Fold this sequence. Notes:
Elements: E1 2-4, E2 7-12, E3 20-25, H1 29-43, H2 68-74, H3 80-112, H4 121-170, H5 174-179, H6 182-224, H7 226-233, H8 236-273, H9 275-280, H10 284-336, H11 342-383, E4 405-412, E5 421-428, E6 433-438, H12 444-451, E7 459-464, E8 467-468, H13 474-479, E9 481-484, H14 495-499, H15 508-517, H16 521-526, H17 544-557, E10 562-566, H18 574-588, E11 592-596, E12 608-613, E13 616-621, H19 623-628, E14 656-659, E15 665-668, E16 674-676, E17 679-682, E18 693-696, E19 702-706, H20 714-727, E20 730-742, E21 745-752, E22 755-761, H21 764-767, E23 768-771, E24 780-784, E25 790-793, H22 801-810
Parallel strand pairs: 6-11, 6-12, 9-10, 10-11, 20-25
Antiparallel strand pairs: 1-2, 2-3, 4-5, 4-7, 7-8, 12-13, 14-15, 15-16, 17-18, 18-19, 20-21, 21-22, 23-24, 24-25
Helix pairs in contact: 3-4, 3-6, 3-11, 4-6, 4-11, 6-7, 6-8, 6-11, 7-10, 8-10, 8-11, 10-11, 15-17
Residues 444-445, 486, 566 line the site of magnesium ion.
Amino acid sequence: MEDLVGGGCLRIVSCAGPMLRVAYSASCARAFTRLPRLVDPMRSGEQLEAGAIDDCNAEGDGDHEPSVARRMLTYLVPYRRRIALAGLASLVTTAATIFPATITRWIVDDALVPATRRGDARGTLLLLVLALLGTRLVAWSSERATLWQGSWLGGQVTADLRFSLHRHMLRLRPSFFAKHDVGSLMSRVAKDAEAVQGFLVRGVPFLVINALTFVAVFGVMLATSWKLTLCVVAPVPVVWAWGRRSQRRAEPRFGRALRAQSALSARLRESLSGIRVTKAFAQERREMLCFEGENAGLVRASVHANRMRVQLLATALLVTNAGLLALFLIGGSDVIRSELSVGTLIAFYSYVYMFYGPLQWFGQVNSSLSQAVAGARRVFEVLDTAPEPYADVRARRVTRAQGRVSFEGVWFGYDSSRPVLRDLGLEVAAGETIGIVGRSGAGKTTLVHLLCRFYDVDAGGIELDGVDVRELRLEDLRRQIGVVFQEPFLFSGSIAHNIAYGRPDAGIDDVIAAAKVANAHEFILDKPDGYDSEVGERGARLSGGERQRVALARAVLGDPRVLILDEATSSVDARSEALIQHAIAGIAAHRTTFVIAHRLSTLAHTDRIVVLDHGRITRTTTYHELTTDTHAPITRAPRLPVDNTMGSSPVSGRVRVFRDARSLIAVALPDGSTFTDVRIVRARPLRDPEGRLSFVGSSREEIVAVDNLTQLDDASLRVVNEELHRRYLTSIVSRILSFRSKSGVSCLCVETGRGRRDLVIEDLAGSSRLLPARNGGGPRLVLEDADGNRFEIPDIDALDRRSSRLLQQAL
Ligand SMILES: Nc1ncnc2c1ncn2[C@@H]1O[C@H](COP(=O)(O)OP(=O)(O)OP(=O)(O)O)[C@@H](O)[C@H]1O
Ligand SMILES: [Mg+2]
C-alpha cells in the first residue's frame, strides 16, 4: 500500500498476470487497510472466510446535540438553593425598582400639583419621600444579594466546568493530543470556560431581574393606561426580531473569534517553548511576524463579532426613542385635555425607561450569550470526545501481574491507511529481558505504546499473563508497567517530587534507592539543594542525561512488573550507561523488561533481541550473535568494563568524622577504612534539613549516609555541624521591616540573626518557596536574593502583624 495525498493506492502483485493498482480516496482508507490483513493469509494458501469482509460504514455519529444553552444551565442544577435565593432577591429588587415610579406619581398628584392635592400636602410629601427612601434601601440590599449570588454561582460553575474539562482531558486517548495543539486546548480551559462564566455572572442574574421587571412594568403600565402602553410597546416586536436575527449571525462570528484566540495561544506557547531553537537560528523576527499575524487575526475576528452587537444596540436605542416620542405626543395631549394627570405621565416616563432598559439589555446579553454559546460549544466538543475506558466495570482487576507478555498477529496504524505494525507476533516470558532493535521508524516505540494501551490494536491481540490487555482495568494495567520514554518529560518541581511521581507516598529512602539504580544519586547530591533541587519546566534545568536518569529512577521506583526502557540511556555517557545497565540487570532479573536501543552496549544484559523492520519481526537473535554480525542494524559502542560501585550501597552505622592534618573533613567507617577530603551534604536541605546526611568522596561517590545525627559521637557531631553551618549559609529572618517594589524588582529589608539585610529580588514569585512546617507551626518560606543568598522565615504564621502584612503585600 502506498500513501498518496488525500488517499492511497493498493498494489496487488500476483505471480501470474500484471500488477493491479487500485487508488482510493481517504474516506475509503479504513476499508482498504483491512485488505492486506485479509490478503496476507491467502498468500500462505489459506482460504478467505466468507463474512471476513464486513461492511465498513463509517461509525455514524447521528448524535442528537442538546441545546448548548440548556446544557450550560445544567451546570447550575447542583446550586438550586442558591439560585432560589437569588430568584427571591431578584423579585424584591424588581418590586423595589418599579414602586418608586408609582410613589413619584403620588408625590406629583397628591402633594405638588395644586389642582389635585388633598389634605396636609407637606405631611404627605414627607411620608412619600420617606417611602421612596425605604424602597431605595430595599432595592440596594436586594440588588447586592442578587449580584453576589450571581458572581458566586458564576465563579463556582466555571470552576466546575474547568475541572470537568481538565479531568476529561486527562482521560482522553493519546491520539487526541497528537491531533490537537496543547496551546489551543489550554485556551479552551481558560478562555472558553471564561466566556461561559461571563454569561453566567453577568447574564443569568440580570436576565432574571430584567425579565421580571419587563413583565411587571408591562402589567403596571397596562393597569394605568392601555393607550400609552400601546405607544410604548409598539417598537418591541421590531427590536425582538432584530435581536433574534443578530444572535443567529453573531454566534459563528464569536466562534471564529475564539478559534483565533486559541490559535494565538498555541502560537505563543510554541514560540516560547521553542525559544532556544528560535534564538539558535536567529528567527526572532519571523516568530514576531507570525505572532503579529495571529494577533491581527484575533483583532479582526473580535471586531467583526462585536460589530453586530454595536449595530443592535444603536438600532434598539433608535426604535425605543420613537416610543418615547409617541408617549409625549399622545400622553401630553391627554394631559392638556385633562384626561390624564401630570403624575401619571411622569410615572409613565419612568416606566418607559424601566421597560426599555431590559429590552436594551436583552440586546446586549444576546452578544454575551452568543459568545458564551460559542465558548461552551468548544468546551462540550472536548467533553463529548470519547475517553479511554477507565470506568469499564467489566474490566478485570490485576494487583500484581507475573509479567508474561504476548503479541499475537498485531496490526496497527496511527493513520488507518498506513499500518505501522503488521502481523507482529512475540512471546516474552515473565522475567525475561528482551531487546528491540530496528531502523528509525520501524515501530519499536509503537510496539511498547500498544502494550501500555495508549492505542488499541487494529487486529490481533496483546496479552499480559494470558489476558487481553483490553479486558484489564486500564489503571491496573498501567500500574504494572514502568516506562522510560524516548523523550523523558519531567514536571516542574523538585527532583524528589519527580522520582516519586508514580508513588507520591514513597519515602525519601525509596526515592534514593531508585535514584541509585538509575545512577542519579551522585549528580543529585552534587546539586546544592540535593533532592530538593528544582528541575524547571520540562526539566529544563537538568542536562539531557540527567533528565533521563531521573526518568529512569521514576520508572523503577514503582517496582513495576514490566519495565520498558525506550532509548532510556541514549543521552548518558558510556560510563554511566554501563553502570545503569549493570543496575538494571539486577532489577530486571525479577521483572519483564523491554529494552529499545540503537546502541549495542545497551543490550548487553538482554536474554533475547528481536529485530523489527517495517512493522514486522524479521529476526530473533542474542547479544552475542549481534556483536559478531557486521550487518546488525545498531550502532556499535565500545563495551566498558563494568565496575561495581552501583552494587555497594552506603554503610549505615557508627561512623567517625574528624579533620585530618590538612584540616579537611575525614570519615572513618566501622570497618576501619578512612576517607579524606569528604563533603557533607544534606539529601533534602529544604524539605528535610534535619534528615539524611551524605558523606561524598573526592570523586563524587557517596561513601556513607547517616539518617540521624544521634548516630555520631560528640566530637564528630561538632565537626559535622560546623561544616553544615559553613555549607548551608541560610539566614533566619525574624522580622520584615519594609517592602518596596519597582519595575518588577522587589526590595525587602529584613531583620536576621546576622543583623539587618536588604534583599533585592527580581522575580519574587520564582525565587520564593513555601515549604511544609518543620516541627508543627506554620509553613516555612525560603527566599533567594539576586546574589543567590538564602533567607528563611521559619514559621510565617508566627510573624508579627506588620511583617505578615508586608509579606502578603510582597507575595
Ligand atoms: N502519533 C503518530 N501519528 C502518526 N504517525 C506516527 C505517530 N507516531 C509515530 N508515527 C509513525 O509511526 C512509525 C513508527 O514510529 P515509532 O515511533 O514506533 O518508530 P521507532 O521504531 O520507535 O523509531 P525511532 O528509533 O526513531 O524511535 C514512524 O513512521 C512514525 O512516523
Ligand atoms: Mg522510538
